[in-house]
Amino acid sequence: MLSARNLQFKKPKSAARKRILLERTAKAFLFVALGFTSSCGSLYRVKPVAELSTMPASAATTNLGSVSFRAAPLLSDEEVQALFESNLQLAGLLPVRVEIIHNGGETIELKKVRLSLRDDSGFEWKSISAKEAIGRILKANNVFAYNPASRKAFEKEFRAYELDLKSPLTHAERRRQGLVIFLSPKKEPVASPHGLVLSINGLSQPATLNLN
């Protein structure tokens, strides 16, 4: 027959076992989650850059003589999902496709080129790096437990879309395109911004493009 002392002794022992079981279950769940992410390769399925469609005919265009710029914002979630399988608008991000065309002549240095974006309310949208954008995407989509290798793969695939302004543009290359990621003024989810104007500075003359 069990005494009161024996009962009191077994309670904490049972509670300890439950804690151990819960900890093991949590670790097992995390292990499975990380293993699943690892098996997928990247955190998200990113469309290869080579499969990116041509710039739409409706893209805003400006001719600066030896070089031309074309740009089009990715305003719909469908467009973004088709590329990155993730919700960038929820993270307060607006990708803008930019194409630079060499019209002839000498090699054009792009290191000093600066692209800025404003809306019809006069608010400035800050351009951010691919690395910063990825951090916001993961946070907005509540992605916290992942294999570091999977994030690294996603970063590599995402960065492949980033517009290269570091290397010069030659006539042999002819044209270059990529994405510039802008952060909404209040870092809030993007919802149908109006009157977007892209400003181009750093070349022989400045220019602006009315995007929508």
Describe this structure in words.
- By secondary structure, this protein is of the alpha+beta class.
- It has one domain (41-48, 59-210): Immunoglobulin-like, CATH 2.60.40.
- The chain contains four helices and eight strands; from the N terminus they run H-E-E-H-E-E-E-H-H-E-E-E.
- It has helices at residues 4-40, 77-84, 130-140, 148-159, and strands spanning 60-63, 67-73, 93-102, 114-118, 124-128, 175-183, 197-201, 207-210.
- The protein has an eight-stranded antiparallel β-sheet with strand order 1-2-3-6-5-4-7-8, with helices on one face.
- Strand 7 and strand 8 form a beta hairpin.
- The chain is globular, with a radius of gyration of 25 Å.
- The termini are far apart.
| Strand residue percentage | 15-25%
Helix content: 25-40%
* Top CATH class: Mainly Beta
β-strand number: 8
Weakly predicted, low-confidence segments? 1-12, 24-40
SSE blueprint and pairings:
Layout: H1 4-40, E1 60-63, E2 67-73, H2 77-84, E3 93-102, E4 114-118, E5 124-128, H3 130-140, H4 148-159, E6 175-183, E7 197-201, E8 207-210
Antiparallel strand pairs: 1-2, 2-3, 3-6, 4-5, 4-7, 5-6, 7-8
